[in-house]
């Protein structure tokens, strides 16, 4: 563990662009976990139906399968930084719409499914493009550490995200509305990290 810690610290210490991207993505992924916690609870609150909650998975799966076939091609054909800025901005808009409908007290099941579907479709484009960032930002000697840090942020999201969501949802006066609002706000960190990147064009990794 003593040897691993300096190794993992290398990309964060030596490459500010990677550090900003990693921190922003980690914060945003925790925010996303809050929405992932809130949507099923809101659907169940509206319908009282486990089947309706399960249908959320269908709303997520279909665009992932359909748009996912295009996501990799889009990442290969465009400036990845610009593409991710667009998809992240749109994802922030979807989270803001989820927050707005919750604060407005709407109980429209179709709207929740539509927003979840949009979120999944955008994510199917966003994720393949983001995966190209780490090899472009880090030299070969630090690539394993960068990938390990990326995996670490995923584990942080899986453990901390639901815990934070449960705490926020349980606070009187906050509830699910604040889960959505925190998620929408967290995209600011991700957008900042991506906006500070140089252009990452297909086949043109950054010089080190």
Q: CATH class, anyone?
A: Mainly Alpha
What is the typical, i.e. mean, pLDDT? 88
Largest sheet: none
Helix % is over 70%
Q: What is the second-level CATH architecture?
A: Up-down Bundle
* Helix/strand order, N-terminal first: HHHHHHHH
List the helices and strands and how they pair.
Blueprint: H1 4-14, H2 16-47, H3 50-77, H4 80-103, H5 109-131, H6 133-137, H7 143-170, H8 175-195
Question: Could you write a compact summary of the structure shown?
Answer:
The chain is an all-alpha fold and 208 residues long.
Question: What does this molecule look like?
Answer:
By secondary structure, the protein is mainly α. The protein has one domain: Growth Hormone, Chain: A. Helices cover 83% and strands 0% of the residues. The chain has helices at 4-14, 16-47, 50-77, 80-103, 109-131, 133-137, 143-170, 175-195. Helix 2 runs antiparallel to helix 3 (50-77). The radius of gyration is 18 Å and the shape is globular. 38% of the residues are buried.
């Amino acid at each position: 563990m003593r040897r691993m810690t300096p190794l993992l610290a290398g990309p964060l210490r030596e490459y500010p662009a990677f550090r900003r991207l990693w921190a922003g993505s980690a914060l945003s992924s925790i925010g996303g976990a809050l929405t992932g916690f809130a949507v099923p609870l809101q659907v169940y609150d509206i319908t009282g139906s486990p089947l309706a909650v399960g249908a959320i998975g269908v709303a997520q799966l279909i665009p992932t399968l359909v748009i996912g076939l295009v996501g990799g091609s889009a990442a290969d054909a465009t400036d990845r930084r610009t593409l991710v800025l667009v998809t992240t901005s749109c994802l922030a808009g979807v989270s803001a719409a989820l927050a707005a409908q919750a604060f407005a007290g709407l109980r429209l099941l179709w709207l929740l499914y539509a927003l979840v579907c949009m979120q999944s479709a955008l994510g199917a484009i966003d994720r393949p493009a983001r995966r190209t960032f780490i090899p472009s930002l880090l030299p070969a000697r630090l690539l394993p550490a960068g990938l390990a840090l990326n995996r670490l942020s995923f584990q942080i999201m899986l453990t901390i995200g639901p815990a934070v969501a449960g705490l926020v949802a349980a606070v009187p006066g906050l509830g699910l509305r604040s889960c959505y609002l925190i998620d929408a706000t967290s995209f600011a960190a991700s957008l900042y990290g991506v906006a500070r990147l140089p252009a990452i064009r297909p086949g043109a990794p950054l010089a080190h």
